[in-house]
């Protein structure tokens, strides 16, 4: 299959790498000649020569005849995506046109204003839910989409053969395809991605002027909550602006609950019911987050092991676990504030907990004497 | 040293286990005879017989003479801690009295109202920053305090010998002692613990009514932000109520910034500067969180490896890393939505990145072809 990618940043170049590895014929186009050349040099595809005759100089020309691409993928920044999609629909009158933007409803509206009904049927919006802290082709990797959700937004007017082509391409990258209505997609990412990003940034922001002696008390809880606060402001500004209605709606609900907490804190002892309610509602929402592989949340048994923070110790630990033939479902490492000690939480299915503890103790590992199950972090 | 522990829940029983393991003479007391017996049965100490003559039946009576304890540790729920501390100061006129409550200023005020000046000098407030999702003696473990910060609040009136005793006891549990003013402690935990808890709960709460197809898009970012949303409402209600002023103050600052984001989202394209600012301020605060072992944040190189989710694979991976004699600074595992594949991010010091990648590739592991450093998650 011939694929033409417009925009060779992180996503475009990564897609080129992934599809080239699957023997797709990939051509690349970017308004920046430097970015275009870099992506090609990395192996993401061949540079697009005007008119579509950019014949792949690779392993012969079997199959491909140098004609128009079957799929054109728009991977530009979100603010120019709509115009680029419209132009591509016009330039390639037989091709299916898709994109990788992380907000779908407003983009579809913009495209609808720019093109006719029949052209619109050739556009299928996508959102591969993959990314990195780094941007640009230099950060591209062929496995970026592997095992990540790839959302496809089609409707009843979408021709089945075109939808099939896009599904095939998405699955060729190793992604897991999910079909969603654009509005449901946007509402979902507001809750599971955009609002968590805003709030993580706000929590981290409160540490800006905290003295060192205060931030020294930071534990794993704070680190988890603020990890994504390290994200790129430019990228997130475009994402939040593009999904402003959905994000605002969720933030307003959140603010209402925040205000109840603030009021309860002001009122003192009599109002603790509102505090308990806020934490309990959080429990309820937490329980809805799916576990591994899209399954329902699983309760794992967690075995905690203390290890010296020296080379090879972790290797020995996991070798010992491997020798017991027990599968590790999840793991987490925490560090001592000023000691050379690590605390490793290993999650396993409850049936194997006792065997794991007995086995590790017999090999001299330091683990708690009482084997207590706690909620697994899936 | 003789230690008397009042309150045998998770913290009291864990402290008893830790100190007993270090050959301290520990006696236990709880208003619940069942809880008291359970802690004793688990090995946390001997049950307190009235009058202090609860002679330890263990390894002889060398040193100890069955008299009053040197330190009394109050480990009751926060709402009865002040009265219990005051009673203990009266009951044991020579002992140093300490506690483990997670809020210090309001507790000190309450104790001050209940006891005289000279008695107050025998009280030294503490906050060992350790806990679990589970509560009660049944969840106790001797390593609960290992490698965790143990905050001690003393002032210029605190006798040096008493302070020294408390430090010695804290360090005997494996904890790292930090000396802080109570107000600074409370301001710190508001920012690094209490506010992150509130906000994680609020984010999770927004998922309560999200359809399954929406929560199916949940990724590692959401899981990180909401992990502590699984915490116990009863415990957190007491903690938040006890530190209401500091928590409220930080939440008000956070709400001001939240309102700016909400306003910017409402205003549309012209107001994206406010969105960029919110994310950038988050970057700034994030950079203040210390890394491992209380050091400044370190930039690690992250190597990502794809592994099949089968028993032993992780063991083989860490064995192979161990064979290269490279120390793993941190690791993180992510899962595919519906595939049997795991993505492992291994953080190492940048100088060893190339060696690690070359070594793992030569053993057949699947890693990205381009070696790019990204910000380490310390």
Strand tally of chain A is 11
Please name the CATH architecture of the largest domain in chain A: 3-Layer(aba) Sandwich
CATH topology tier name of the largest domain in chain A: Rossmann fold
Oligomer: homodimer
Q: What percentage of amino acids of chain A are in beta strands?
A: 15-25%
Mean pLDDT of chain A: 85
Ends distance of chain A: 38 Å
The domain tally of chain A reads 3
What's the story with the biggest beta sheet of chain A?
A: 8 strands, mixed
Shape of chain A: globular
Description of the molecule:
2 copies of one chain form a homodimer. Chain A is an alpha/beta fold. Chain A folds into 3 domains: 2-180, NAD(P)-binding Rossmann-like Domain (Rossmann fold); 186-286, 6-phosphogluconate dehydrogenase C-terminal like domain (6-phosphogluconate dehydrogenase C-terminal fold, Orthogonal Bundle), CATH 1.10.3660.10; 294-362, Alpha-Beta Plaits (2-Layer Sandwich). The first copy, chain A, has 14 helices and 11 strands. In chain A, a hairpin with a 5-residue loop joins strand 10 and strand 11. Chain A is globular. Chain A starts with a strand and ends in a 16-residue tail after the last helix. In chain A, 54% of the residues are buried. The model of chain A is unreliable at 51-65, 292-296 and 369-378 (pLDDT under 50). At the A-B interface, helix 7, helix 8, helix 9, helix 10 and helix 11 of A face helix 7, helix 8, helix 9, helix 10 and helix 11 of B. Chains A, B: It comes from Brevibacterium aurantiacum. Chains A, B: Pathway: Amino-acid biosynthesis. Chains A, B: Residues 1-297 form the Prephenate/arogenate dehydrogenase domain.
């Amino acid at each position: 299959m011939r694929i033409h990618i417009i925009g060779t940043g992180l996503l475009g170049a990564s897609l080129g790498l992934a599809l080239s590895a699957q023997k797709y014929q990939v051509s690349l186009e970017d308004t920046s000649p430097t970015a275009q050349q870099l992506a090609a040099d990395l192996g993401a595809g061949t540079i697009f020569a005007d008119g579509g005759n950019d014949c792949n100089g690779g392993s012969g020309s079997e199959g491909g005849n140098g004609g128009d691409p079957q799929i054109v993928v728009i991977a530009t920044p979100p603010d120019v995506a709509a115009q680029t999609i419209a132009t591509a629909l016009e330039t390639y009158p037989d091709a299916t046109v898709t994109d990788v933007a992380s907000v779908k409803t407003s983009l579809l509206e913009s495209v609808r204003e720019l093109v006719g009904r029949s052209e619109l049927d050739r556009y299928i919006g996508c959102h591969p839910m993959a990314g990195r802290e780094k941007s640009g082709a230099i950060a591209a990797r062929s496995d970026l989409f592997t095992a990540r959700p790839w959302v496809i937004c089609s409707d009843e007017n979408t021709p089945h053969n075109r939808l099939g082509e896009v599904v095939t391409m998405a699955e060729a990258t190793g992604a897991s395809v999910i079909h969603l209505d654009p509005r449901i997609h946007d509402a979902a990412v507001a809750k599971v991605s955009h609002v968590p990003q805003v709030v993580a940034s706000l929590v981290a922001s409160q540490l800006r002027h905290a003295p060192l002696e205060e931030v020294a008390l930071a534990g794993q809880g704070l680190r988890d909550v603020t990890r994504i606060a390290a994200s790129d402001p430019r990228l997130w500004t475009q994402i939040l602006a593009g999904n402003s209605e959905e994000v605002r709606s969720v933030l307003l609900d959140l603010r209402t609950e925040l205000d109840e907490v603030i009021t309860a804190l002001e009122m003192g002892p009599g109002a603790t019911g509102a505090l308990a309610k806020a934490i309990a509602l959080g429990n309820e929402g937490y329980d809805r987050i799916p576990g591994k592989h899209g399954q329902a949340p699983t309760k794992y048994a967690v075995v905690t092991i203390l290890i010296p923070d020296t080379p090879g110790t972790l290797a020995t630990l996991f070798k010992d676990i491997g020798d017991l033939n027990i599968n590790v479902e999840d793991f987490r490492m925490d560090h001592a504030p000023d000691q050379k000690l690590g605390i490793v939480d290993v999650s396993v299915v409850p049936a194997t907990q006792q065997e794991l503890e007995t086995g590790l103790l017999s090999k001299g590992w330091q683990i708690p004497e009482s084997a207590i199950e706690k909620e697994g972090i899936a």
